Amino acid sequence: MHHEPIVTVGRPAAAHRTGRPVSATRRVEASPVGQGRSLSMVLNSVTVIGGKLATMGLGFIFWVIAARTFSQDEVGLASGAVSAMMLCTQIAILGVGSALITHYPQHASDPRRLFENAFSLTTTASFAVGGATLVIAGLFLNNLSVIAHSVWFVVFFLAATVTGTLGILLDQTSIALGRGDQVLTRGLAFGLVSVGVLSAVAWGSSIDHAIGMFVPWVVAGAVAVAIGGWQLRRALNGYILRPRVAGPMWRDLTRVALPNWALTMTERTPGLVFPVIVTEVLSKRDNAVWYTAWMMAWVLFVVPISVGLTLFADATNNPTKLRRAVRVGLGTALGIGVAGGALIALLAPFLLQILGKRYAIDGVPVLRILCISVVPLAFTQAYFAICRSQRRLREALIIGAISAVASIVVGGIAAATWGLNGIAIAWTITQTIIGLVCVQRIISIARVPMTAGGDA
Question: For the segment 194-203, what is each residue's pLDDT rounded down to a tens digit?
């Protein structure tokens, strides 16, 4: 558990007016909400994982309702639009969440200025990226051009991009504060609201096209951001987040953010590009199968990704305890990941049969192949966390870029040649090779003594 400084959030003049010492003025811990303390690394990791799993588990119910209500073509189109939106959020975050985690120890005495600039920068970027994506979709895409040619789809797409990006930043803010339970609360809220709104759309209206499956993402995203704002307000003792544009702070954030963003994009881009490749190279129906199988596998992938983020935060705050943090992180990721992978592989026929016979026939082998990659992903995410905390981003970027390019190129060729099974095999083989490289790098870095400054 890292040290938690105290933030004085009462007005400074209050101490002078009352004559009481500063320690008697109204104060609040920088990192906690309510209980006045942050969580341990393991508990922080588990609650973050719980939040992601809640979102994904309820997301499965979401797509079951969609598959049972809408045509397979419309499900494929909607899932492609959702993937495009999620790709936008990954681009628009610009690594600001990682920069916030990195800068937080220096701003813990009063993090408000850091938070204000981070959220303002992210909001601006999300509008810009969402707008640019709509232009690209309208000019160059075929099946997904609908998101740019419908006024309502344009509005909803931009709204979902903004709230989705802010949701990512809120998650990473909670991780920096050591409060993974906040992520759990927002994840549950997002999933429940999205399922509820889709159910209302499915049974309470005559909408029978992709936009009906997209609206719930907008509403759920707005609710999750509202809850996050309330949680942050409690953390800062009633302070309301305000827009702030400070040139020096934006420069400080972007200097750290952009390399971290580039690394995150190498991790996330293949998974977000695959649905577009499947939609355009194969068919919308194939993408409906691929997307549901990938989302089920992503429930598993969330484990090493979430553990990697908490490892990053813990190693940043306690650089001299990096080795222990890596051991705990890898043990957590592998323990939960392997058990979860075996369970999902075993239940794959039942899970996919819920969506329909065609999903089960085509999707079971895809899902089982994808489950294997959770093991190499655990080592890759641990390595990336080490590189983020130790500022070794150049070497991580090289490995990440090789992984992303190889996954997309080989996956695209495999999809055109062998279909859905081919792209799953290509992904798993690529991740295994990269994971082996990361194991070697983790061992090499761990042999070098760590300084208090975090340099190896």
Answer: 999 998 887 7
